[in-house]
Fold:
Amino acid sequence: MTIKKSGGGEDCEMHSHDAAPPRVVKVKFAYKLVVFTGAVIALSWFFEGWRQVNQAPTAASVGVLVLGTVTTLLFVGIHAYWIYFEEKSKGTLRKRIALFEGISEYLAKRRSN
Structure:
């Protein structure tokens, strides 16, 4: 397939194989494994905190429950962010998520400085 492109006073032909392929973002498996392992450990803290709160609610048991909840949500959120941008870079994204777009813009600005 050829594409006629005109500009700058002269015509030129571009072939479809000349165009640069879209850059597909992939997160390394090692990072995914670390985040998944962290999420599993954090989820075990959540269940341990829940068990301790049901036995005898103390500040320590509530602390374990809150810590497990927050860290589980953090790790699952990181993994969801990675999945979102892998799908976006492949062009198979079905729904935009404003939170992830905002994080991406923030990180892009930070990277450029």
Observations:
- The chain has one domain: 26-112.
- The mean pLDDT is 86.
- The radius of gyration is 23 Å.
- Residues 26-112 form one domain.
